[in-house]
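pinging the channel bc i need a second pair of eyes. not urgent but kinda urgent?? the chain im working w is below, pasted from the shared doc
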Amino acid sequence: MTALAPYASDPARSRGRRVVEPPAPTRSEFQRDRDRIVHSSAFRRLVYKTQVFLNHEGDLFRTRLTHSLEVAQLGRSIARSLGLNEDLVEAVALAHDLGHTPFGHAGQDALDECLQGHGGFEHNLQSLRVVDRLEHRYPDWDGLNLCFETREGILKRCPLALAERLEAEEPGGVGQRFLLGRQPSLEAQLTNLADEIAYNAHDLDDGVRSGLLQLEQLQEVPLFARFAAEVDADHATLRVGEPRRFLAEVIRRMLSQQVYDVIDTTRAALAHAGVSSADEARQAPPLVSFGDEMKRASVELKRYLFRHLYRHPQVMATTEIGRTIVRELFAAYRAAPMELPPEHREGDPVRSVADYIAGMTDRFACREHRRLYARDLFAPAD
């Protein structure tokens, strides 16, 4: 790792863990967090959780696991250039989706509907709940007992009502910044933006691979069209002769330019703000960002993907089935709690059902639904 900038998060100055532990002899505190996340059950389950295309739709589409790895790679690359803490960026990146339900955002929306009147469901808060409570790996505490800085980065968003509840449970903890209107660490800000860069690029790639998006129609997207023209100029026959290589090269150039833009814009923002410590960075406005032109281009790409991929009838049809499975699983477990594993019959009965469903992979949720309802919603119609 390169030398840390003065505004980077220093593991030697961490605000610590909720349960005090002796330091590790060979690893920093953020390295320990990363390692605990990688060895968690929730992390392994990400391999069978949907990004856009459901797990059974193809072996080459991204999953929550591969997405998290791509976010970590992009985040570390940018962090190194800015002198930020790469290990903290990697830990937050690998943990940021641990609370995602099966079937992507459709599953989250369905579970949120089921929990109206019971606090609702939000995947960022669920990711924090996973690392704070739901992992059972240690004899003396629940959760992974991660550092404050890692937990802070995992909680990307938090409505004020939930922040107030978190502050009551943990005064001065990860909910406080939402009440004070402050920012998370620069590493957390960076991971949030790396997340956006990663999913825009790989959803574009998966959309073309699936056949739902065509190279020709992507000319409507200014960011894509700009780099497609560059690739055409450098490799005149590639688009027609080897379209997969053509797409990969366009996306590679898009990613590189976005990374360079973030580095240049953030360096300028840091210099202008004059921050000299991690705490000063938290009290400043957001400092890790795109420049104005790239921000507009990223928003245009996101809007295009929303209209033409996320709202494509084929995607909507499969995610609606996922939504139905989550709703019906919730109803079945609420009506017959004995169908739950013994460890999920304790505590708040509604939240315990939500925790169990949120932890499921796509394929396990389908299997459980077939077991409880004796029908396969993904089976081809006769």
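so The mean pLDDT is 93. and Residues 243-273 form the longest helix (31 residues). — does that match what u expected or am i reading it wrong
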